[in-house]
Design a protein that fits this description.
This protein is α/β, with parallel strands linked by helices. It is built from twelve helices and 15 strands.
């Protein structure tokens, strides 16, 4: 058995922390995820700086901010020649350090079947990408089944995305991913360290558990959504227009309390099933004899409004969209605890490398999870806007012209926009945003740097015909 720790990264899609027992949810049962928290460190406040699927994932993979890697929405992906610059993904670094690297499930790469440093991939992409011919699609076809658009599912239109999946149990997508991950763990070489990322397509919409999964959740026990505000209303038209497009084909212009209860009911059922899938994977680690040398990381790419502020999904910078669970259970020395200081998903990249004994490169914009501080300001951006969160406050600036400042200590539900009446804290957060934007610009254009212009007098740069190296290496 390798002395380097195995690293298992479990990443559900669109999971908010307050729908987990270990984060205080009493209306559902998540014993396997709770057990991870009881064996490790649970981070009370983990922030997704860019709360859209692809920007969040590209940032975690590369260690760069969304601005730095140039991935600001779901139609972007980092430049393919970035290894020539010295920009390597965390699995690529770990593979060079001797790890067997495997990605199981949803990764959201473009093209969808590239490796990005993983030696092995078993692919089950987004529930919305029904035309991708991935490994999950092949398994369905071999069983006489197929992927379907959610509008073919029972209840989808009337339930505003809360539907029923009638697939047989082994072919429910998260269950299939868990089975593939467990099989890969059992088949892994015991003499090589293993770094595995498991990407669950759920509980992302469509909110489509099998019918029987709903029985364990009492809809009356579910928390009510946060009220709409004047600030959140400025995003509503764009939100409705987005979901009317073909990928979702839902009209959220008339989202009622009953709709929200249904969505939350189905979402909670998916989370309970996700917990069972986590149990399957941890059991495989235990049965293979690897668990005692494994660091298990459980997180998500962003949250889900689930009706908060009259919104569904993510995209904007309210707490339900940017807050994600983060649990790090090091089974080499289990030690339960809770960390109250805020951390960022960008912190995973340097932490993965540090745990594997790999030097953290200069382009990494996160901090190792052991190096966080209480006064940190976490910044983030997408194509829709920018955020600076720290010192008990949050400043957001959106491309639609909306600007908001929230007192997260006295108003954690972000009901009162304090913009204009706290000039000192606003100035501090605005300065942090300015630095983040400038850093993002510099990182995004590092390929164009001509360092040779400052070379010594004997450098070929000063002669005719010198060829500029492109892209420029990071240093």
């Amino acid at each position: 058995m390798s002395r380097q720790p195995d690293i298992l990264f479990l990443l559900p899609d669109q999971l908010r922390p307050d729908f987990l027992g270990c984060y205080g949810a009493g209306f559902l049962k998540t014993p396997h995820i709770d057990a991870l928290a009881e064996a490790g460190l649970r981070y009370e406040t983990c922030i997704s700086p860019s709360p859209i699927c692809v920007p969040a994932r590209a940032s975690m993979l590369t260690g760069q901010s969304a601005m730095g890697c140039g991935v600001m929405d779901n139609l972007h992906w980092p430049r393919p020649d970035r290894p020539a610059m010295g920009l390597r993904t965390w699995p690529d670094h770990l593979a060079s350090a001797g790890y067997a690297t495997a990605a199981i499930g949803k990764m959201h790469f473009y093209p969808w079947d590239i490796s990005e440093g993983f030696d092995t991939r078993v692919i089950a992409e987004d529930k919305r990408h029904i035309h991708i011919r991935d490994d999950y699609d092949a398994a369905l076809r071999a069983a006489g089944l197929r992927k379907v658009h959610a509008r073919e599912q029972e209840g989808y239109v009337d339930g505003k995305g809360a539907s029923i999946s009638d697939l047989p149990e082994p072919y429910q997508v998260d269950r299939w991913v868990a089975g593939q991950a467990a099989e890969a763990i059992r088949a892994a070489d015991p003499d090589r360290p293993l770094a595995m990322m498991v990407g669950f397509p759920g509980p992302h919409c469509p909110y489509d558990p099998p019918r029987e999964a709903l029985d364990s959740i009492d809809p009356a026990s579910l928390p009510a959504p946060l009220p709409r505000t004047a600030e959140s209303a400025t995003h509503h038209a764009a939100f409705v227009a987005s979901y009317k497009r073909g990928w979702a084909d839902i009209d959220y212009s008339d989202l009622t309390d009953a709709h929200v209860r249904g969505i939350r009911h189905h979402y909670a059922a998916l989370v309970e099933r996700l917990d069972q899938d986590v149990g399957t994977i941890i059991a495989a680690l235990r049965e293979s004899g690897r668990l005692d040398n494994t660091i298990v990381i459980f997180a998500s790419d962003h949250g889900d409004y689930l009706g908060d502020f009259g919104l569904v999904g993510k995209t904007y910078f309210h707490e339900p969209a940017i807050r994600v669970p983060l649990i790090v259970a090091d089974f080499r020395a289990p030690a339960p605890g809770v960390e109250a200081r805020a951390v960022s998903l960008l912190d995973l990249y340097p932490s993965f490398l540090d745990w594997a004994g790999v030097e953290v490169p200069c382009h990494a914009r996160g901090r190792r999870l052991g190096d966080i501080d209480r006064d940190r300001i976490i910044t983030g951006a997408t194509v829709h806007g920018m955020m600076a969160r720290g010192l008990g406050w949050k400043l957001v600036r959106y491309r639609n012209g909306t600007v908001a400042l929230f007192d997260l200590t006295r108003d954690p539900q972000e009901q009162q926009n304090r913009i204009g009446d706290q000039p000192e804290i606003q100035a501090v957060l605005d300065h942090a945003l300015t630095l983040a934007v400038l850093d993002g610009f510099a990182a995004a254009h590092a390929d164009k740097k001509v360092a040779e212009a400052q070379a010594g007098p004997d450098h070929d740069f000063y002669g005719r015909g010198w060829q500029r190296p492109y892209p420029a290496p990071i240093n």
